[in-house]
Design a protein that fits this description.
The protein is mostly beta strands. The chain has one helix and eight strands, in the order H-E-E-E-E-E-E-E-E. A five-stranded mixed beta barrel has the order 4-5-6-8-7. Strands 2-1-3 form a three-stranded antiparallel sheet, with helices on one face. Strand 1 and strand 2 form a beta hairpin. The longest helix has 8 residues. The structure holds zinc ion. Zinc ion (ZN) binds next to loops.
Length: 138
């Protein structure tokens, strides 16, 4: 069982996101980059916004991230999250990955103690069917 209960809806990847989720299935957090100019982007896109190249590469993210922003969810907007409120949704930045931000959950934290700039560590949430979601803890 994952961090959220099993009835939590899972991501439904769009075609452009297939590479990102395929890496997640291997417990590898990678961001799409441009093979021509090196610009990273997330979420994945079919074309580089900097140079319009369609050639891509995948750069591995470090396991340590930094909280760029966050919110504490107190209202269960879906029945599956009722047992987890209050929980933290954070926007994270990664050293060496300029311009990329990832939205995820901070787990095993006191929501009242989360701070901008806080260092957090990646862990892989096994949500079943071979799918792993990147989540973070302090
Ligand atoms: Zn480019």
């Amino acid at each position: 069982m994952g961090w959220f209960p099993d009835d939590m809806p899972r991501p439904e990847p769009a075609p452009d996101e297939a590479g990102f989720w395929a890496h997640c299935r291997q417990r590898s957090l990678r961001f799409q980059g441009c093979a021509a100019c090196g610009t990273l982007r997330h979420p994945p896109l079919p074309m580089c916004p900097a140079c319009q190249s369609c050639e891509t590469s995948w750069q591995e993210a470090p396991a340590q991230a930094e909280v760029y922003s966050f919110t504490v969810v107190h209202h269960a907007s879906h029945p599956a999250v009722a047992a987890r409120v209050p929980y933290v949704v954070a926007v994270l930045e990664f050293p060496g990955c300029p311009g990329v931000r990832l939205i995820s959950n901070l787990t095993d934290v006191d929501p009242a103690k989360v701070r901008i700039g806080q260092r957090v560590t990646l862990w892989w949430d096994d949500v079943g069917d071979g799918m792993f979601l990147p989540r973070f803890r302090a």
